[in-house]
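Mods, move this if it's the wrong board.
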Amino acid sequence: MKKILILIALVLPMLSMAQNDVAVVPELHGVLIFTDNTPLADYDIVGEITYQQDSPDPYVANPAQYDKIRRGLVINAILANRQVEGIITDIHDNGTGSAKMIIFRPEAKDRNLARVHEYKGVLYFYDCEPKNAYTSVKKYGAPSSFRYSVVRKGVIKKAAKKKMRKQGVNAVVVTYRTTMRDKVNAIRFE
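Not the wrong board. Structure tokens:
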């Protein structure tokens, strides 16, 4: 009996996470943007594109931020294939990015939905919104860095702390802000 209770205690949180890991992704110029998540609808990859800042400002030592990389990837995707419906991005720490261009299959439904990734037991919603209802536990600023992986690691590390876990935090919603620190909303699902 004790083994069954332990098994239920381990499986139950995983089931609730699986139900809450669906996000609604943004659209820019008619292209859906999948960052740190995977489309739920069936799709075909029609090519890959990259973004690199043409001429970095010699007076600024920092590489391009997420917003500029995202816009560049969308523009490059549209120029490469006018039928592109979405991009699955890969943001690099040096201010560049690459993306897979996708076209959804004709029978695909809910094209703007994606399954977000989980890091250290925390669901990570970056530049997207959870589909399910949630309660905000704490809001804070993301680490100040131009490197995407550093920001993600810092946000997850703070949300995974014991104090946050005791408050029921099981996900973060990160909203990028141009030229400022990103906004983080540590949440728990209802």
